[in-house]
Fold these 3 entries.
Entry 1:
Amino acid sequence: MAAQPCSVAILGLGMIGGSLALALKASGFASRVLGYDREPDALATGLAAGVIDGACEDLDAVLAADVVVLAVPNVAAAAVLEELLARTAHAHRGPVLTDVASVKGNLAAAAARGGPAPRFVPGHPIAGSERSGVAAANGELFRRHRVILTPLPEQDREALALVQRLWESAGAEVVCMAVAEHDAVLAATSHLPHVLAYCLVDDLAASPRRADLFRFAAGGFRDFTRIASSDPVMWRDVALANRDALLEAVDEFSARLAALREAIASGDGARLEATFSAAKAARDAFAEREARRRQP
């Protein structure tokens, strides 16, 4: 027997929330998708574009949905989660809550502060774009991308299965991981690259030669720094929410960069070539695996 469609409320109608809304409507997972956002323009844009079917005026209307997805910046998500859990603390069976934040530790801590939260399923889609806002919503954004769920110790298994089905209906591959492991892995593979891209662009922009630097920057600069066009508020929150793991990743990278600087300063071409060759082999193997995984 086919699963019945659910009503879904997206709390925070940006690019990720809007993309998920489109995907869930197209797949038939959602019978109705509602949006809630503090910016009236975001709701108006979402309604006009058919991203959402209706707008919620308050959190009580949000909590009337079967599934509530928190799609707001990381620090705000923790505060909103606490409020939603407080409002549903005495409900016999409230909605299933999940999120899309790229740091899980602060959300797990927020859930624990209110006591057990068995119907909250932390989640993180490994997909995105440097574009922001609901106007950038793309219903194919999650297809053949991974989504990491980090179940909590008291996790309601039905809630976990529902959130897994939600993401699979959007075309994603779902994997589960411990909270601490998730935050360490993402610090190294996502949060650190964003910090480096922002830092490089900021450094060049502050240079007295910035006009020529940007004028003659080529494809390598464009490719490496694309993510520096991402939402600064969101990435500020990510950096602060995942501070400990990110600092560890920054320190490890700084040590390797210092070793490369020493090789350049000393004219150690063999060491440079060995490092570059090892990096190329690892990057090529990663690209090949990803290409195979994303084949239809």
Entry 2:
Amino acid sequence: MSAPSLSLPDRPAAPALGMFLVLLLGATCIGFSGIFVRFADVGPAAAGFWRMAFALPVLAAWMALENRRDSAGGVRPGAMLPIALAGLAFGVDVVLYNASLGFTSIANASLLGNLSPVGVILGGWLLFREKPTRRILGALLLAIGGAGLLVLPKLSGSATPLSGAGLFGDGLAIGAAFSYAAYILAVRRARNRAAAGRIGLISSAICAVFCIVAAFGLSETILPQSLTGWLAVAALGLVSHAMGQGLITLALGHYGANAASLVMVWPALVSVLAAWAIFAEQPSPAQAFGGVAILAAVLLVRKG
């Protein structure tokens, strides 16, 4: 089904540097989500609920500003299905990723969780017929190779051997990666039919409902038990979600899914560095080379 005539173009030829920086800033904010989850003293799904709850007022204000600038901006036909799918997919991603942090390291969870570009590029190719260029494919391989170097010491046992629980956590992180790929694809489709603020608000509300139902179903601790816990869930909502996901949703209106998905490997590097600084999870030389490879991939994406 083709997009309405007023929709944004699927693949703008040359996104501005400013919009690329918006995309990168959003990805950086998301990179701190694992740190915030570690400080939150609630269950994985409950942390996801609070992330949405604190973000919703900001997203509502954003949508109101959009409506003032564009009175005809509403939701165009065909927008609600991809928005709803985005909310559900992100709910699954948040719950799986948060749960993985209880069984594996922040670096491992973040790196495996950022394998989503594989699913996004394949999905964009099959569903949206966005055939990746050689440069995009090269950047993808470089980014995945960098992620492999980052996680190699853990997988090889040269750091801390993975236990059964660690492997379970890695599996949850991989599941989160493919869920996030579905989220990116759904948002990309929705951005042809609705404004970024509206997409963020509706999908986040759906995600909040999913997470609180899951939290009660899993008998999790719902309310934070300390000031640190409250500050952590507030940061999840305001920094990682309202700012992080909001800026990424905005940027996806100017980038094709292939290029945008590759920048999503950036949070892995941010997570590794933050875990090193806060939890003394020092990266090995192989992990350092992996970080350089990710930076190089981001630069390739900027060139299109």
Entry 3:
Amino acid sequence: MAIYTGSNKHLGGTETVTKKGTIFYGLVQKNVLVTGANGQLGQELQQMAKKTDTPFRFIYTDADVLDITDAAQVEHFISENSIEYIINCAAYTAVDKAETDEELAYKINYTGAENLAKSGVRIIHISTDYVFDGTANVPYKEDAPTNPLSVYGKSKLRGEEAVREFADEWIIIRTSWLYSEFGNNFVKTMLRLLNERDELNIVADQRGTPTYAADLAEMILVILECDEWKSGIYHFSNLGETTWFGFTEKIKELAAVNDCRLIPVSTDEYKTAAVRPMYSVLDKSKIQSAFRVVIPQWEDGLKRCLKKLQN
């Protein structure tokens, strides 16, 4: 396991299915709804859960199975499936497209989160570093003032507010620069472009921390298995910090691509529809202390992801 914890407990052995559920050493498994299960984090959760014996039964859904923006559908699904926990990975994450698709971004990131929060079920809600404006010069703690610059960031902040207002027992995890072996993401795009182009212009003045989705998935399982539910906002990414240019340099180095020249450019030179925070490094000390975990460096996560992608 990438994340080390001294308190994490895993239950092994055979399972027995009954009319009341699945028995694990005399315990009825608790049903966990995972929304957005076809996304990067959702797929990593599925992979992680397969490898780890837990006292939970995961029910994976995406928009074609459960429309979280439909309150009645959410209420019916949660009741019908006796859901006791929700992991909300569903999100509108097309940062630039959200600037012209504001209604749908808010519908998924805000209304969907509110519907899930109103269910009365314990919820782990995934949020983003883009709730900050990037004017800091030290890692953001959970209680730092928020001031999102984009529609995406604003809609995610509204989702956070809905979870805090309507859920009785909630955990919000803000993360940053997420990538994995699944779906579309920066690492996979750079791998393709590095092999297709002679040179690439990469933004070199935005600082943050890449996060391997498999490590975040493991962190979520640690939280689920913790003996005590600890409501609150937490920050999670891999450790360290870099720029998009530094991130690309490391991808190029580890993938042994030598024929593409990387050119550092400024944010002003690389115009995008959405404004992004110039600095969005997250302080992870709270989650490390609360759950007694040791988080890997971002370079370590990248090595493990590239190994899977190249196998």
